[in-house]
Known about the structure:
Elements: E1 7-11, H1 13-16, H2 20-35, E2 40-44, E3 47-48, H3 56-61, E4 73-74, E5 77-78, H4 79-88, E6 94-97, E7 104-105, H5 106-112, E8 125-126, H6 137-150
Parallel strand pairs: 1-2, 2-6, 3-5, 4-8
Antiparallel strand pairs: 4-7
Amino acid sequence: INTKKIILISTISVRVEKNSYALNRDLVEIIFKKLFVNSLIIRLPVIFNHDQKRGIIYDILKSKKIYLSKNTTINPLTLSEVVSNIYKSKKLRGLIELGSKQTISLNKFAKIFNSNSIFTGKKYNLTSIDSGMNSDLEKILSEIRSIYKNWYHKF
């Protein structure tokens, strides 16, 4: 591939988890770094968007069983924040992690959205390292509330 710049979208799971998905993404990142020296890897945290039909946030909003500890921490982003941050970072190179500036436990997130989710499983720290571009958690929660009110209550 002959290009000036390429961005690889990855996941913070590479750093915080040791499952097959994370190991596979780590391998992809290693190969990518060797092939595209002047490019950028962006690791994403837990993400929410209104079309989502699975994932931690969706499952909590739908009061589904969560296979993680209630004390697991996240620093989520909405899809619109991801797009905005990718645009802002397009001139960077190397590796950055995106996420909200503040963290929140899954239990606190569930309480904010009156979820009846039951938590079972291991505690993880599913938070990104601050890249200096991270978004405000209250802004993210406000956007999720708006989407939740307008979208999820229709079903």
